[in-house]
Design brief:
alpha+beta, 11 strands, 4-stranded mixed sheet, 4 helices
Length: 209
Amino acid sequence: MGLSRFSAGHYISAITVLCLLCFLPLAIGQETPNCSPAVLNDEDYYRSEQEAVLAAVNQYNPLSVKQDKEYMGAVFTTEVFGRTWFRFNVAAGNAHRDRIRICFNMPENHELTAFWHTHGAAGATRGYLRSYFSEQDTQLVQETGKPFYLATPDGQLKIFRPGMTTLNAYKAKQLGLGRRTGMATGEQVANNKGQSLKIRVRSDSDEQN
């Protein structure tokens, strides 16, 4: 079921993400068992959507790569004392599986602005796919009208926005993806100088070892 709108107080469930080969039904008002509850980061508030996404992926992409586990969440905006702030939530999938099923309550007085996710380890099965947005990633963007960020195992941060083009079967085959439609390369997220951002793939403790 596609979701066309989000509003405070609605329960969003059955957000199923296989991330590489995934199907993403979104439903309101239906509680679905066996999903990973996405936990809201209660402590930190960020000045922009990009700042919130960077905080999320720099915290969870090293874990994703180390554990070969997918992480996914949403970004929200809210007003505090007349100023707009951004926050994120997160849920974890299972190791060595290109699948994550998350559910979360829309926080009161918050608005959903984007989704973000990681793609596990580079050397895992089907690792060559992990730098691309899947057909279902792009479907989620088309259905919700919200951008989707992707943190790759090699430290890239990409975004797929509403209205961006997907790969046709011919181009996908050229890239070694098979004759699939709907996948996308997205575009690199850049800083205010136009430089592509690099994100973390190892934690501080791993870098010290």
